[in-house]
Design a protein that fits this description.
mainly alpha; two-stranded parallel sheet; 8 helices; 5% strand; globular
Length: 133
């Protein structure tokens, strides 16, 4: 971002900024409706990420994470437990706890549940055209 005060606010607000100066009108619509995630399907097809899994961590987050070996033992996912459990509405620490829970309790049925919940969340966001755009 190049603006330290915005980075602090960004992290404090759960990795988002109200009226983020980097996002235009089309971008706000794409984010609000979750359509900005569609290009990641290519990464799923290539095998770089999985359909369901914890969200990717950047290098700074990895170093601060106490149980990084558990999170790094699985591929990042397009969607995950933290995404369907509140997405931006939960804290960074809570998202990491949910990611840990996912890694430690993985099952086919957990993945199916997360995928179904993801579809529901996306459809709800499309129906109301996104609460934050």
């Amino acid at each position: 971002m190049g603006r330290p005060e915005l980075i602090k606010q960004y992290r404090k607000n759960g990795d988002q900024l109200p009226n983020d100066p980097r996002i235009g009108g089309v971008g706000r619509f794409l984010r609000a409706t979750s359509l900005d995630e569609l290009p990641q399907l290519w990464s799923v097809f290539k095998g770089d990420i999985s359909l369901v899994g914890p969200r990717a961590l950047d290098a700074f987050e990895i170093e601060q994470y106490a149980k990084k070996n558990l999170i790094l033992s699985v591929k990042s996912g397009l969607t995950g437990l933290a995404v369907v459990s509140g997405r931006q509405g939960i804290s960074f620490d809570e998202r990491r706890k949910l990611d840990l829970y996912y890694v430690q309790n993985w099952s086919f049925w957990l993945d199916m549940t997360i995928l179904l919940k993801t579809i529901r969340v996306v459809l709800e966001r499309l129906a109301r055209r996104g609460a934050r755009y």
